[in-house]
Amino acid sequence: MAGPEECFSFLNSSRGEAALGQMYGRRPEVLARQKQRYRGLIEKFLRLYPGETEIELFSSPGRSEVGGNHTDHNGGRVLAAALDLDIAAVACKTGDGLMTLHSEGYPAVTVDTRQPEPVEAERLNPAALARGVCARFSQLRYQVGGFKACLDSTIPNGAGLSSSAAYEQLMAVILNELYNRASLNPVLMAQIGQFAEVSYFGKPSGGMDQTTIAVGGLVTIDFKDFAAPLVRKLKYDFSRSGHVLAIVETGRGHTDLTDEYTAITQEMKAVAQALGGKVLRDVPPEKMLANLPALRRQVSDRAILRALHFYGDDQRVVEQVQALENGQFERFLSLVNESGRSSWTLLQNCYSVRDPDHQGIPLALALTEQLLRGRGARRVHGGGFGGTIQVFLPAEELEGYVAGIEAVFGRGACHPVLVRPVGATRIVNR
What is the distance between the alpha carbons of residues 23 and 62, in angstroms, rounded to a whole number? Predict the structure, then answer.
């Protein structure tokens, strides 16, 4: 722990600039903005909690799913990246057992770490995530305890960039650092966050979001063994290929779409179970195709189409990784577009069937095709039905693309992002 003045000095030091540069990039204007952001958080913390003399700085990133749309929950493979959009926090340890969380723009959240049981009224609320993380720490015989924190997020809420998983991993890293001497590894912290999201928050989660956020960087993850997923970092910089990764908000969030996400998971598993497996990764695609006539009498056609998407996108992740590692960027872009077409036609998560008048994702994809004249790549991003699209576009097209897409979806809808090599972390100031 360090005093506030030490933290102010750290932010202005070369060590502070290096730490911030790893998370947000090294452009001078970005570093200046982040220094001011953390200074403002510390000042707010001291206004709320005058007299506190020891604090820590933390950060937990959002994530972008690059490949493997809805494959993780059925034991598949994914390619994903931690982003420079994040939740920043100032925190200090307390002795009262209470987690007190002040998030900019939201009501304060208080959770008693000594009461780990789920609270029905907290479902789909940040308090459920914090309580679930604490509960799982306790179940695994790790230490929990109280802390006060001020949070500030640059991750658009409900936009498919995993703000909930970033929140979970922030809780996990704070507890890990303040009470457990940083003894938990990132994969375990990710599994704790997934537990909180499924069992306390009440939303299905396959583990990709939490694992990517906990580990950081561009990662490929194989969930064939859910208890021990295989995680590997890739050393690839998209800017080396002259392209920018951008996320576009289409105007509808994810807050009322849990049942549609759940249906994807359940339908894929129904196909697997009809063929003798638990998840689709247990069943070879050839077996499904050989049994289609009988299978159609047991599950819906939509479930079969979603299974076909799973098999295709699971294999595409392998090919995407190979393309990047072999320097075949055009091949990689082609695979991103293939994944997008599969999500649109087979997975069917580009708009909600309950609200067909609102099709922001297909509109954003169509407009992107027009603006970029077929260059780059585009796909639905993350869970789908609402939220965001992902675009890889030539760097020289960025200014025109942002102007064109934001003319339709509003100022600030397009987020050019960087892949962040650092996962959820304490920002060391000594």
Answer: 11
At 281-322, the pLDDT tens digits run 999 999 999 999 999 999 999 999 999 999 999 999 999 999
Domain range annotation of the chain: 4-236+420-426, 238-417
The second-level CATH assignment, the architecture, of 4-236+420-426 is 2-Layer Sandwich (3.30)
Q: How far apart are CA 380 and CA 412, in angstroms?
A: 19
64 Rama class: left (phi>0) / alpha (psi -120 to 50) / beta: beta
Using CA atoms, how far apart are residues 430 and 416, in angstroms rounded to an integer? Answer: 32
Note whether 4-236+420-426 and 238-417 share their fold: no
Instruction: Please give the Cα distance from 295 to 282 (Å, whole number).
Output: 16
Structure tokens at 354: 């309950």
With 80 as the cut, is the pLDDT of residue 236 above it? Answer: yes
Q: Which CATH architecture has domain 238-417?
A: 2-Layer Sandwich (3.30)
Judge whether 409 and 249 are in contact, CB under 8 Å.
yes
Task: Classify strands 98-103 and 147-153 as parallel, antiparallel or unpaired.
Answer: parallel
Backbone angles phi, psi at 376, to 5 degrees: 70, -150
pLDDT reading at 255 higher than 80: no
Q: How far apart are CA 116 and CA 428, in angstroms?
A: 30
CB-CB contact of 148 with 42 (8 Å): no
Distance CA 336, CA 328 (A): 13
All residues at 6 or more sequence positions from 429 whose CB lies less than 8 Å from its CB, including other chains: 2, 6, 7, 10, 15, 16, 56, 57
Q: How far is CA 236 from CA 23, 241, 326, 355, 358, in A?
A: 16, 10, 10, 39, 36
| pLDDT 10s digits, 328-350 | 999 999 999 999 999 999 999 99
Buried b (16+ CB within 10 A) or exposed e, 392-418: bbeeebbeebbebbeeebeeebbbebb
Helices and strands (H and E) in the chain: how many: 14, 12
Q: What is the average pLDDT across 360-365?
A: 96
Q: Write the CB contacts of 284 (distance below 8 Å, at least 6 apart in sequence).
A: none
Question: In 3-state terms, what secondary structure has residue 99?
Answer: strand
Task: Please say whether the beta carbons of 85 and 154 come within 8 A.
Answer: yes
- Give, as one character, the DSSP assignment of residue 55: B
